[in-house]
Amino acid sequence: MTPNTETIHEGTADRLARRPWPATPIRPGINVSFEFFPPATEPGFETLDSCVEQLEPLDPGFVSVTYGAGGTTQDRTLKTLRRLAANTDLKIAGHLTCVGATAAEVDRVIDSYLALGVRRIVALRGDAPSGFDGGTAAGGHGSATEVVAAIRSRADASAENIDIAVAAYPEVHPKAQSAQSDLDNLKAKFDAGADRAITQYFFDTDAFLRFLDAARKAGITGEIIPGIMPVTNFERVRSFSERCGTVVPDWMSELFGGLDDMPEVQHLVAATVAAEQCRRLAEHGVTSFHFYTMNRPELSVATCRILGVKPQSVRSVDVRSTTGQASAANAG
Q: The whole model's pTM is what?
């Protein structure tokens, strides 16, 4: 008989919650949020639907949907936002980048989000798409700071109740001239009207705590939410981390070494590592965590359960696309 994977993960999470180290939550009021990426195929959307069904009962503060390099997933991002808005009670954030786009194109995306009832936006400069030589299009915004200002000018904060998140880099953005210039850039984004920042994922907890301390000393008072990446595939994460500047500690290589052909064991280790990372941060007063789910919910669910974040009573929802919704995929 094939074991039920979901039951395995839930049972393991409950057992790990009874581990000998200090029980969590360390303090009341732990908040979680989740990031999804827009699927490219209908089976991918069905996978996302399943992911949402498992994560919505955890009562996240919000969920975000990514936006591809140079706006390459714009239609799919809007389709995903429509699907979530129509079929869930989740608070939804749409990502927005400016690389390769004119200011007018950015304004159109902002208007599309507002028309969907999306009142949260993650404002980013973004990566250039493959084959694109430059960064700023003619008549476009040159930085995330300018995108934040554009959102604020497009939708008055008091009238539209817009919440803007931006990116932060505990281990310094790979293209930043220095740690100080990176911190100055973050402050500029807050000064332009950002409400909070979500960090690039990291594994060195001390690096985040040092960064948070430096940000406060620099006069940044807004919320800075740590980005947590449960490791679904260690080699893939290590390769991606080299490109984005995230340090992978030696102990992780030792811990995950030899587990690529043992996915169940790797997942158990990954959930424990992510939960312990959150526990350490919680001990230092951090109460909000943003999970990069990769549209695979099991590790995020297990980590949240270990942290003491358990399903809430929510209405029964059907997140499958209904007639007419899928046909609107390319609108806007």
A: 0.84
